[in-house]
Design brief:
By secondary structure, the chain is of the alpha/beta class. It contains twelve helices and 13 strands.
Length: 344
């Protein structure tokens, strides 16, 4: 479909700095969607799956971070994703960390980012989400403002939960970005349990108010120690969360040592994170009951990578950096590979 076109487009985009290229690519996608070009060029298979009580048109999604503010939902949906996750969003708008804050490691099909939850705030996102025509599943990824201390973090997550609840198909609690100081401390079992308990309790109240039970998902880091995982899994079960995303970006640089930009601070994404992400995915699958869904992300740059995550126990997969390097054809490649293992 786009196999011969996207490499040329990527070459042009990569002339610009990564953050500028990101904006240009999304605007180009919006224009292409507006004239019907993306719908003609991108044909994703219909491969419905039911996960967390939701019907997904197919199991391949766009991960959070690509569209932080919900400005491009319809455009992204037009290239065949079965679900799109927007955010991370915070209660108040914030600019994020100083630029430059995204770096390409092209030889590794990777990026490092230290964006720091730059977004226009939850109220803007809600307005955008209300306009969407996309019919796939929409996840909304929520976080805390950078200047909110961890002892008050639950307040920020609750504000976001309340404001997006009526508009989300599922809600992801991001406690694993390395780019907000102290955020990953919320993965410690005591803090995790308190946060998940507060969110689940409020979810129960909102479910009565809106007559709608929205699944809650937590997104974890690939840098967890093995001994942390069983206790975290217990907290997920105890607080009736419906799913877990494995994983976010990594702070490890073992796979990219010596490469240009490898020493930049931030989270490393793309192909080099795959092994760590898969290890955590597999460990959580072993620690969690089957009814709790896993969404596999981190290191998907081919259909085979997506199929491997399904084989390790993921019910759904999503990517972001792989889309930057491989383009829209990665959606159909992943669906074909997943279909192949499903028929074996």
């Amino acid at each position: 479909m786009l196999a011969n076109f996207y490499p040329l487009l990527r070459k042009a985009l990569f002339i610009a700095d990564p953050e500028t290229a990101h904006g240009l690519a999304l605007e180009g996608l919006r224009l292409g969607h507006g004239v019907g070009a993306t719908q003609l060029l991108c044909k994703a298979s219909n491969m419905p799956v039911t996960v967390m009580g939701l019907e997904f048109p197919n199991p391949v999604g766009m991960a959070a971070g690509m569209d932080k503010n919900g400005d491009y939902i319809d455009a992204l949906g037009s290239v065949g994703f079965g679900f799109i996750e927007v955010g991370t969003i915070t209660p108040r708008p914030q600019p994020g960390n100083p630029k430059p804050r995204i770096f390409r490691l092209e030889q590794a099909n990777a990026m490092i980012n230290r964006l720091g939850f730059n977004n226009k705030g939850v109220d803007h996102l809600v307005r955008q989400v209300q306009k969407r025509r996309y019919k796939g599943v929409l996840g909304i990824n929520i976080g805390k403002n950078f200047d909110t201390p961890n002892e008050n973090a639950a307040d920020d997550y609750l504000v976001c939960l309340e404001k997006v609840y009526a508009h989300a198909d599922y809600i992801t609690v991001n406690i694993s970005s390395p780019n907000t100081t102290g955020l990953r401390d919320l993965q410690a079992v005591g803090q995790l349990d308190q946060l998940l308990a507060a969110l689940n309790q409020r979810r129960l109240e909102l479910a009565d108010e809106f007559d709608k039970r929205v699944p809650l998902v937590v997104k974890v880091a690939p840098d967890l120690e093995d001994e942390q995982i069983p206790e975290m899994a217990e907290a997920v079960v105890r607080n009736a969360f419906d799913g877990l995303i494995a994983t976010n970006t990594t702070i490890s640089r073992d796979a990219v040592k010596g490469m240009r930009h490898a020493e930049e601070q931030g989270g490393l994404s793309g192909a080099p994170v795959k092994d760590k992400a898969n290890h955590v995915l597999q460990a959580f699958r072993a620690a969690l009951p089957a009814e709790i869904a896993l969404i596999g992300t981190g290191g998907i740059t081919s259909g085979a990578d997506a199929a491997e995550k399904i084989q390790l126990g993921a019910a759904l997969v999503q990517f972001y950096t792989g889309f930057v390097y491989k383009g829209p054809d990665l959606v159909s490649d992943c669906l074909e590979a997943i279909a192949a293992i499903s028929t074996v």
